[in-house]
C-alpha cells in the first residue's frame, strides 16, 4: 500500500511538473509558429508567429516576426497601419516585413512570396497588429466594440500591447519603439502618451519605451490639408497665377472652405481639376483607372485608403499591370482570402469572411483633429523619435510634415543635409534636440505614400541607423 501510495504521489508530481512545463512553453511562445506559407518555397527562414490577443470585447490579430539578428537583445517595434482600417499586412508584405510578392512570375492563383532581404526584422523584432478592431483579421466578440474612433483606437492598441507583453514577458525588458504610418500618425502618437502615463501610474508590465517613429503621419488637419496646395505649387502641378490667386482669395487657408467663400471656392475647384488625374500616392507614377473611380469629393481622410477593386483590375487601360503599383495590392486579396493561407496563419473560422487590405466600412469617428499638443508634451520625455516622409507624396506631403515639426520649437543640432546609401543621396535629413528629446526628420527621395513601400532598401538603412542610435 505504501508503495502504491508513493507511486500515486510521484505520478501526481510528475503530472504537475509536466503541466507546468507545458504552460511555461506556451508562455514563452508568441502565438503559433508558422513554419511555412502557401506560395513560399520551403520553410520560412525566420520565426513568424500569429495569434489573437483579447482586448475588451475584441480579438486583436497579430503577426509577430522575431528579429533575424539577436532577438534576445534587439529592440521590439510595435507597428500598425493607417487608413483608418488598413491591415498590418501592409507592413508585413509591402513596407517593413520579411516577405514580398513575386510579381514577375504571377500566373494566377495564390501569389508566390519570397524572403525580402531588406526587412526591418533583420535588426528588430516586429509586432504587427491589425488595428482598430474590424481591420484585417481582428474582430469583435461584442458587436458594440466595432464602433471606434481616434481615441478608442489608441486605447485599444495600448491595451493590446500591454496584454501581449503580459502574455510574453520575455520581451518586456527589450527596448520598445512604437511605429505607425499615414492616418495612424494620429492614434500612434496618443499610444505613446498612454505608455508614458501607464508607466507613471505603475501599470504592469512597465514598458521599456525608448521612442517612436512615424511615416508620412497625419498630425494636424489644417496643416496637412493646406500643405497639399503648397506642395502642388512647388512641384509645378498648378500655375503661379492660380496658386497666388487662391492664396489671396482664401486668405492663405485652404482647409474647410465652403461655397460661402465663392472666389476661394472657385479657385480651389480649378486647382482640383488641374491635379485630379495625378496619382496622389506618388506623383511620378501613373494613376491606374478602376471601374469605380474615386469620388473627387471623398473626404481627405478616406483618400488615405487607396480605392482598389481587385476584381476590376484587368479593366485598367494599361497593358502591363505590373506598371501599376496597385497591382500588388490586388494580389493581397487573393492571398489573404485563400483558405490555404488562412489555415497556415491560424485564422479562426467564421470570424472574418471577406478580408480587405483597407476596410473602408469601419464605424469610425474622427475625434482628434490635431496631435500637435501630444508631440509637444512628448518632447519633454527624453525620447528618440524618427519622422520620415516620401518627397513625392501628395496624400501627406513633406511640406506639411516639415511645417508641424517646426511648430514644436525644437533646437536644430544637425542642420539640413543629404543622407546617403552606397554613396548616393537617399534623401535629406535634419535633427533636433531639446532636454534629451531627439527628433530626426528624414525624406526618402523619390518615394510616395508610404515611403518605405517605394524605397524599401533605403527605408531599411534609415531604420537600422535610427534604431541603433547612429546618425542617418
From TrEMBL:
Keywords: Carboxypeptidase, Hydrolase, Protease, Signal. Belongs to the peptidase S10 family. Residues 1-27 form the signal peptide. This is Putative peptidase S10, serine carboxypeptidase, alpha/Beta hydrolase. One of its GO terms (biological process) is proteolysis. It comes from Rosa chinensis. One of its GO terms (molecular function) is acyltransferase activity, transferring groups other than amino-acyl groups. InterPro entries: AB_hydrolase_fold, Peptidase_S10. PANTHER family: SERINE CARBOXYPEPTIDASE-LIKE 17 (PTHR11802:SF329), SERINE PROTEASE FAMILY S10 SERINE CARBOXYPEPTIDASE (PTHR11802). It comes from the Eukaryota. The keyword Cell membrane does not apply.
Amino acid at each position: 500500500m505504501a508503495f502504491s501510495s508513493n507511486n500515486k504521489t510521484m505520478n501526481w508530481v510528475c503530472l504537475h511538473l509536466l503541466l507546468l512545463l507545458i504552460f511555461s512553453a506556451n508562455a514563452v511562445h508568441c502565438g503559433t509558429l508558422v513554419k511555412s506559407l502557401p506560395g513560399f518555397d520551403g520553410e520560412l527562414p525566420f520565426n513568424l508567429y500569429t495569434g489573437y490577443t483579447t482586448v475588451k470585447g475584441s480579438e486583436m490579430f497579430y503577426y509577430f516576426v522575431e528579429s533575424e539578428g539577436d532577438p534576445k537583445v534587439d529592440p521590439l517595434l510595435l507597428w500598425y497601419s493607417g487608413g483608418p482600417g488598413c491591415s498590418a499586412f501592409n507592413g508585413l508584405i509591402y513596407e517593413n516585413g520579411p516577405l514580398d510578392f513575386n510579381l514577375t512570375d504571377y500566373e494566377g492563383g495564390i501569389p508566390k512570396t519570397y524572403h525580402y532581404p531588406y526587412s526591418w526584422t533583420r535588426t528588430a523584432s516586429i509586432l504587427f497588429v491589425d488595428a482598430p478592431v474590424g481591420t484585417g483579421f481582428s474582430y469583435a466578440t461584442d458587436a458594440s466594440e466595432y464602433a471606434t474612433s481616434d481615441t478608442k483606437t489608441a486605447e485599444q492598441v495600448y491595451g493590446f500591447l500591454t496584454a501581449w507583453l503580459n502574455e510574453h514577458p520575455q520581451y518586456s525588458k527589450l527596448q520598445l519603439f512604437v511605429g505607425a504610418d499615414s492616418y495612424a500618425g494620429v492614434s500612434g502618437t496618443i499610444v505613446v502618451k498612454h505608455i508614458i502615463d501607464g508607466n507613471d501610474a505603475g501599470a504592469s508590465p512597465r514598458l521599456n519605451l525608448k521612442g517612436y517613429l512615424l511615416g508620412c503621419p497625419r498630425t494636424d488637419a489644417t496643416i496637412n490639408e493646406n500643405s497639399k496646395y503648397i506642395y502642388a505649387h512647388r512641384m509645378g502641378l498648378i500655375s503661379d497665377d492660380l496658386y497666388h490667386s487662391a492664396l489671396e482669395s482664401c486668405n492663405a487657408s485652404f482647409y474647410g472652405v465652403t461655397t460661402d467663400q465663392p472666389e476661394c471656392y472657385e479657385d480651389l475647384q480649378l486647382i482640383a481639376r488641374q491635379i485630379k488625374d495625378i496619382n496622389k500616392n506618388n506623383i511620378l507614377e501613373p494613376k491606374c483607372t478602376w471601374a469605380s473611380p474615386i469620388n473627387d469629393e471623398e473626404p481627405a481622410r478616406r483618400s488615405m485608403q487607396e480605392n482598389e477593386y481587385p476584381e476590376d483590375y484587368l479593366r485598367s487601360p494599361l497593358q502591363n499591370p505590373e506598371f501599376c503599383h496597385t497591382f500588388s495590392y490586388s494580389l493581397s486579396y487573393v492571398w489573404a482570402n485563400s483558405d490555404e493561407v488562412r489555415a497556415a496563419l491560424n485564422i479562426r473560422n467564421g470570424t472574418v469572411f471577406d478580408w480587405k487590405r483597407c476596410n473602408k466600412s469601419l464605424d469610425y469617428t474622427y475625434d482628434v483633429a490635431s496631435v500637435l499638443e501630444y508631440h509637444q508634451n512628448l518632447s519633454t520625455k527624453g525620447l528618440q523619435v524618427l519622422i520620415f516622409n516620401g518627397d513625392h507624396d501628395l496624400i501627406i506631403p513633406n511640406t506639411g510634415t516639415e511645417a508641424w515639426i517646426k511648430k514644436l520649437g525644437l533646437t536644430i543640432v544637425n542642420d539640413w543635409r543629404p543622407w546617403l546609401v552606397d554613396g548616393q543621396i537617399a534623401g535629406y535629413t535634419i535633427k533636433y534636440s531639446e532636454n534629451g528629446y531627439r527628433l530626426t526628420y528624414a525624406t526618402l527621395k523619390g518615394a510616395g505614400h508610404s515611403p518605405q513601400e517605394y524605397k524599401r532598401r533605403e527605408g531599411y538603412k534609415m531604420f537600422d541607423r535610427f534604431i541603433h542610435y547612429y546618425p542617418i
